[in-house]
Amino acid sequence: MPLLSRKGILAIAAVIDVAINSDVRPVSAKALASRHGLPPRHLEPVLQALVHEGILRGVRGPRGGYELGRDQAETTANEILRAAVTVDDAFGGPPQGSPLVVTVVIPALAQAERAFAATLGAIKLDDLIKRAEKAKLA
């Protein structure tokens, strides 16, 4: 069972891509979608959530697109994933009527989520960019 949603993985990839490719001009949603083999409509809600959280900055106009909204050394994978969660809320969360779910399952999963979030919080965007550059993907 994957711990990260598809939108979360796309959000991390999009932020890395923007960080690598926005030095000359903002990166368009169309260019991002093309590089990741997606229709732009799949990526746009993720990009808007990242803008809303200040991770990316939207630039309007014919040469507009997206660029980093803050220092890449200060942005963590956990922050990016938290922004993407706002897009993934279609399910509506776990059932609250079950005592087993409320008393056992949710607390156990919350503990695992805290540990996972702490690990993700240690992964800086800067480090991910360096990995991409080392792999010659930048």
Secondary structure: elements and pairs:
Blueprint: H1 6-21, H2 29-35, H3 40-52, E1 56-59, E2 65-68, H4 77-85, H5 99-121, H6 125-134
Antiparallel strand pairs: 1-2
Helix pairs in contact: 1-3, 1-4, 1-6, 2-3
Give a brief outline of the structure.
With 138 residues, the chain is mainly alpha-helical.
Walk me through what this model shows.
The protein is mainly alpha-helical and 138 residues long. 57% of the residues lie in helices and 6% in strands. The protein has helices spanning 6-21, 29-35, 40-52, 77-85, 99-121, 125-134; strands spanning 56-59, 65-68. A two-stranded antiparallel ribbon has the order 1-2. A hairpin with a 5-residue loop joins strand 1 (56-59) and strand 2 (65-68). It is globular. The model has no long low-confidence stretch (mean pLDDT 85).
Q: Share of helix among residues?
A: 55-70%
Provide the structure class: mainly alpha
Across the major sheet, the strand order is 1-2
Mean pLDDT: 85
| Main β sheet profile | 2 strands, antiparallel
Helix-strand topology string: HHHEEHHH
Unreliable segments of 5+ consecutive residues: none
**Shape descriptor:** globular
Total beta strand runs: 2
What is the rounded distance between the termini?
30 Å
Strand content: 5-15%
C-alpha Rg (nearest Å): 17 Å
Number of continuous helical runs: 6
